[in-house]
Specification:
Layout (H helix, E strand, L loop, with lengths): L1 E9 L2 E8 L2 E4 L18 H7 L6 E4 L2 E3 L15 E2 L10 E5 L5 E4 L19 E2 L4 E6 L2 E3 L4 E5 L4 E6 L2 E5 L12 E5 L4 E6 L2 E5 L9 E5 L2 E6 L2 E3 L14 E3 L2 E7 L2 E3 L9 E4 L7 E7 L2 E3 L4 E6 L5 E7 L2 E2 L3 E3 L6 E3 L9 E3 L6 E4 L22 E2 H4 L14 E2 L19 E3 L5 E6 L30
């Protein structure tokens, strides 16, 4: 991949200078005075992020635990460990990814003696997207931010967040309101975000009720696919704090192929459709092929000043609750399954295993997403055998052998162990600690398309 680096004048003519996209490395045994190569990596992710300035650049973070670099949240919303400043371009994003999925743990907790202005004594978030565009964040464990795992409260757009685990965010008594914690918050100035194959859990804490969520969005053109949202219902920081996803207005919202688990004892639902108290601000919503396990009485709830404008479709979802939707807007609600046990393997005690048991009613119960939508397809071999491959496009025939992960392409390394695995989809999600078993990296939302044949796909695709 080549890019325009600058221009020069030769014999009166303007000529473009091209240089290849660069790859930088960060490792726990690195030094920030290094050049950031694989053999001489940077020590801190913030240093690597400052080096990756051109479209197509990549930062690879080697396995290990990375602290907050002494950064502590400030009352004006600053204080994230890595504040991104540089943008990619269409087809040439700036990418931040791990050596091995789940191998790099980004811990925003404070390790210095600075008490900070908040009781959490940590960074606001690990990443702050600021106003960047065309950026990919892939494969990290992001934990212990005061308010967010990833902060996005500027004008960011064309962002892909995939294969991350965002956990234990805002686990302190903040008082709520503008200080409420979320895995990520998107404001109305932002657009074109894709969340693919992430895990959000244990978001919020203290006395806060119904204000702290996995994803909180008022942006436009948001795709949320193949993710897992859950909390430890038996722990102190349980899902009394909010919903897996809450909107606050926004347009063109696609929520497909996700798994939600465990109730909010204060309010029904795993998904809250709110218009931000502004009538007509929420439009064009599709909720399809999701599993809602124990959402209370209703899976999808609303708080609206007027009906959702444009289109609204809620279909081919499955829940063991009595109702899929509270009827708060005139949506097309059809082909959902209620009072149906999805037959998840283990939802009783950690480590949870959200795979579907053999014979689950979720298998084969979904439908293709809207025409032109791209989705992830890394399926367990057992699911792939449940449908003739002739019913799927070639790009959707990826098969996975559960238990191994392949090293990221380009590193020249052999398959490496993944300490933590979580798989979503037609076999549900397995969420547990493992030492020597890792799955191959799947095809992302942005890479695989369902065939146009309209054949059935499984209800919730695996990460």
């Amino acid at each position: 991949m080549m890019r325009v680096f600058g221009r020069m004048v030769v014999a009166g003519q303007i000529m473009a200078i091209y240089i290849p996209a660069a790859t930088y490395f960060a490792a726990t045994n690195g030094t920030d005075s290094n050049p950031g190569t694989q053999l001489a990596p940077f020590r801190h992710l913030s240093k690597a992020a400052d080096a990756a300035r051109q479209p197509g650049d990549t930062v690879i973070v080697m396995d290990g635990s990375y602290d907050n670099e002494g950064v502590v949240a400030t009352p004006d919303g600053r204080g994230s460990v890595v504040t991104l400043k540089y943008s990619g371009t269409p087809g040439k994003p700036i990418t931040f990814r791990t050596q091995n999925r789940g191998g790099a743990i980004l811990d925003a907790a404070n390790t210095s003696n600075n008490a900070g202005p908040y009781a959490c004594n940590a960074a606001w978030a690990y990443f702050d997207l600021g106003n960047v565009a065309y950026v990919v964040i892939q494969g990290f464990v992001i934990q212990h931010g005061c308010f967010n795992g990833i902060r996005a409260n500027g004008n960011a757009h064309d962002i892909t967040i995939k294969w991350n685990e965002i956990r234990n965010i805002g686990n302190w008594d903040s008082g709520g309101g503008v200080l409420s914690a979320t895995g990520i918050y998107l404001n109305s100035s932002e657009h074109d975000f894709t969340f693919d194959g992430n895990i959000f859990h244990d978001i919020g804490g203290g006395r806060i009720v119904n204000q702290e969520h996995g994803i909180y969005t008022s942006a436009s053109n948001v795709t949320i696919c193949n993710n897992v949202f859950y909390n430890q219902v038996h722990g102190f920081y349980n899902q009394v704090h909010g919903w897996g996803i809450q909107t606050a207005g926004g347009t063109n919202l696609l929520i497909i192929n996700n798994t939600f688990a465990f109730p909010n004892p204060h309010r029904d639902g795993h998904l809250m459709l709110w218009d931000g108290s502004k009538a007509g601000s929420l439009s064009n919503v599709t909720i399809r092929n999701n599993i809602f396990h124990n959402p209370g009485h209703i899976a999808v709830v609303t708080d609206l000043r007027a009906a959702i404008s444009g289109s609204c479709a809620i279909d081919h979802n499955l829940t063991n609750a009595g109702s899929i939707f509270d009827g708060g807007s005139a949506c097309m609600v059809n082909n959902n399954r209620t009072n149906t046990d999805p037959r998840l393997v283990n939802t009783s005690t950690p480590p949870y295993d959200f795979h579907l048991r053999p014979g689950s009613p979720a298998v084969g119960a979904g439908v293709p997403v809207p025409s032109g939508t791209v989705i992830s397809t890394g399926r367990p071999a057992r699911w792939a055998q449940s449908l003739p491959t002739s019913k799927l496009s070639q790009s959707c025939q990826t098969r996975i052998v559960i238990g191994r992960v392949q090293g990221l392409k380009g590193l020249g390394s052999s398959p490496s162990p993944l300490r933590h695995t979580a798989f979503v989809g037609d076999q549900g999600v397995r969420h547990r600690w493992r030492r020597n078993h890792s799955p191959p990296l799947p095809v992302p939302c942005s890479a695989a398309r369902l065939s146009s044949s309209g054949r059935k796909a499984a209800l919730a695709r695996r990460i």
